[in-house]
Amino acid sequence: MDTDIVQIPFDGRSIDIEYQWLRAERMTRPLVVFLHEGLGSISMWRDFPRQFCEAGDFRGLVFSRYGYGGSTPRPHAEKWGADFMHRQAREALPALFEALDIGPGRRHGKPWLLGHSDGGSIALIHAASFPDAVDGLTVLAPHIIVEDLSVRSIAVTRETYLQTDLRDRLARHHHDVDSAFWGWNDIWLNPDFRRFDLRPLLHDIRCPALAVQGEDDEYGTMEQIEGIQRYAPQTVLLKLARCGHSPHRDQSGALTAAAVAFINTHTSNIK
Q1: What is the structure's pLDDT at 1?
Q2: ∠ CA 50-228-223, rounded to 5°
Q3: Is residue 271 included in any domain, yes or no?
Q4: pLDDT at 270 over 50
Q5: CA–CA dist 52, 258 (Å, integer)
Q6: Spatial contact of 127 and 142, defined as CB atoms under 8 Å apart
Q7: 209-258: per-residue pLDDT in tens?
Q8: Residue 64: inside a domain, yes or no?
Q9: Any idea what the CATH number is for the domain that residue 61 is in?
Q10: What is the distance of C-alpha 121 from the center of its chain?
Q11: Which InterPro entries match (predicted)?
């Protein structure tokens, strides 16, 4: 897998962000930016972004956030605060878009954001904070509040990381797997993170939104997407049977068909 590196300013220093363009030559088609989950990276998406872009005849941008994949690792002594997703949405993502010439009036135009789990939450925060900067959202198993179910499952994941081969499997996808895992796990299990709540922001989202949740999601209930629709009533819900926390793996066909149709119906980038 060939990826590139771009440097962006973040937290008073320059950091490397690993990224990959997909079908970049399709300049008249919508651009979909993929935002990965809390333990994700470019390679953790596997083939889904490319297959999704081919199905919709879209362009794509996949990247690994700070601390993940081939991007600059989080120093082990650096502890993320309860606002870590807000900072990614309001500081790191705009800096990346500027560096890659994405956004209104720029070469690559306004993107669609497709985010999974933490990446879905970051997409929601970005769209609420910069309502004119995105064409639309597709969020898969996003978090708008911290539920007991989420905390219990993340605590189980901690034990799995310590006691099984999960660390070795994740290490294939991150330059510093312990940095990636503990950055995510420590803040999610920090009692201060219980105050994480996106509901006050959601009414600022003006773009079309498709919110997707699996009926068997072990990290969140349907309240996570139903809550989005209450505050942003233009949101369309997709509830998938026989689907856990990763709709793009468990129900890839159903998700792709629905999301491609949604983007093609609502995007302003089709020419």
Answers
A1: 66
A2: 100
A3: no
A4: no
A5: 11
A6: no
A7: 999 999 999 999 999 999 999 999 999 999 999 999 999 999 999 999 99
A8: yes
A9: 3.40.50.1820
A10: 7
A11: AB_hydrolase_1, AB_hydrolase_fold
Gap between the Cα atoms of 48 and 51, Å rounded = 5
Query: Taking a C-beta distance cutoff of 8 angstroms, is the pair 189, 155 a contact?
Result: yes
Structural domain for 230, as ranges: 4-266
Is the residue at 193 inside a domain? yes
Q: Note whether residue 116 is domain-resident.
A: yes
Confirm whether pTM is higher than 0.90. yes
Q: What is the C-alpha radius of gyration for the chain, rounded to an integer number of angstroms?
A: 17
The total number of structural domains in the chain stands at 1
Distance CA 42, CA 40 (A): 7
The CA distance from 5 to 72, in Å, is 10
Query: Beta 4-10 vs 13-22: how paired, if at all?
Result: antiparallel
Residues 9, 67, 52, 130, CA torsion sign: negative
